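Lecture notes, unit on protein representations.

Consider one protein chain, 147 amino acids long.
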Amino acid sequence: MVFALDYSTKTLALNYLTTQPKQILGTFLQLRLTFNSGAAFSLASSGTIFLSSFAIIVSAAIFYYGRKVTSKRWAFALGLALGGIFGNLSDRIFRPPGALQGEVVDWIQLPNWPVFNVADMAVVSAAFVVSYLSWKNVPFSKNRDDS
């Protein structure tokens, strides 16, 4: 669901937004089309292949360990992470220049924050949920030896 929502909103952004901000809630929430070759805050803009490779490795780990999850909360967190990773990874694969180097479509702007998208929100939310579940010592699976 995260991937579909991210893909749909990026398509809408590409069709209806420009680099000029559209104010939604004054300067607090604006919509502006940007393309990011790096990670959050435009870090590692020359390391796109590394970021893409890292996303693939993390996805593989989620698929591997996700088979053992029995907790609905952990499944939710992993699903959020996977949907967000696939959302941005699909941009890196299919958007110019392609071959794991494509630019990610970003379109949501808040003050003093980099422009972001739904996939970014999902990955950050997943990180918070995983941190919370770990802090609360919520078991990943019924048999702790399997995690």
